[in-house]
Specification:
This protein is 48% helix and 6% strand. With 459 residues, it is mainly alpha-helical. The protein has 4 domains: 98 residues, no CATH class; 42 residues, no CATH class; 146 residues, no CATH class; 118 residues, 3-Layer(aba) Sandwich (Rossmann fold), CATH 3.40.50. The strands form 2 sheets. It has a 4-stranded parallel β-sheet with strand order 2-1-3-4, with helices on both faces. The chain is globular and about 65 Å long. The N terminus is likely disordered.
Amino acid sequence: MSSTPETRGREGSLEAPKRHTIDWRNPDFYNAESLEKELERVFDICHGCRRCFSLCDSFPTLFDAIDATADGELHGVDRKVFREVVDHCYLCDMCFMTKCPYVPPHPWNLDFPHLMLRAKAVHAREGHSFRDQMLASTELVGRFAGIPVVAEVINAVNRIPAARVVLEKVGGVHRDAPLPQFHSTTARTRLMPLVLGALPGAEVVPVPGSRDQIQGRVALFTTCYGNRNEPDMALDLVAVFEHNGMPVRLAQKERCCGMPRLELGDLETVAKYKEENIPELLKVIRAGYDVVAPIPSCVLMFKQELPLMFPDDPDVALVASRIYDPFEYLMLRHKAGLLRTDFKQALGKVSYHVPCHLRVQNIGLKTRDVLKLVPGTTVDVIERCSGHDGTYAVKTEFRPHSVKIGLPVATRVHNAHPDHYSSDCPMAGHQIDSMLPADGHGPAGPEHPLKLLRQAYGI
């Protein structure tokens, strides 16, 4: 709907959200004065609305600061608070997708997450702390921590309370935050025979135009976390897909998807990773494979963020059209009557947390739908933020905020007394686990939905 004198001041919108491209190569994107003007414009609108107060702590931080001024208006807020608002945003996109009535095509044209991304990009040019750089350097840290002896030492030290106190004081990583384990034998090493380049020349086939027209054979993008921190997740995916008659292969190489760097506003490094990942993924797509990745944030990076950063790149657009969440893919197979339902084991009651970066993909609750196919299984769906949000939950200054955000999820899991609790985001699963009471009751820990499905199949 185009803007007219009658609609320019209208309240809210019933139209589907429309995302504008990220103009990150425009010099004005990094202009601090221009940025502050836009922050003032958007924050003033948010102040007058306040529908997002229950999401992340960006909004309470802003609203509390406004309410503390003499006249309760934005102009009295110290501009240092603007930086705090930006720092509390972890780009979950939920305000844009589920709450804000003023997103495009509304004339007020609000995209709060991408404004926060712009602010992060401006701040990134000032440099980041050593801690923030290391937390975002998933490959570098993973390679070092994956050295056999080093992995054992790091995993052991991370379990010692006194060592965690030191890490908190020296490294700014909260003593109670869940930290991932490192494995010296990666998923890609374990799945080396599946690397596409090791096979005879693959037939080149046309790529379908619709996401419903899937190939029935997939290339696994293992992700940094899936490769080094929870390699069993990749093995579970391969087992489930191959049980359903779908060959699984790996690209010859993969880099970090770039999401940790995006969250820092380091768009130049995101572009660098894109230049290495897209050609490799194009090879497997043009060889007749669709791409799946087990971490929702990584799928979202290729499906949404890179196309918005590179709107005129046809290769990025092609990859975006052929990358899938695993359960989205399995449900498409089920829709075609090709998903096996020879389940051997009931799962009982499953508390299932839906990650924010899966919700904003607008594919529906495909994980729930697949798990519900298992006889003797009920799925309690929890559509709230866990509070983990990339690296937010492990930073000392943000850990209390993350717990406040995620505690309702953990409380719901605890009160449900489930046989299993699960999240498509394994980091969210561990965040929930860290907030559950240690009473010895209930499941021993979180299990990824792919592991649950593999258990159900008995494979």
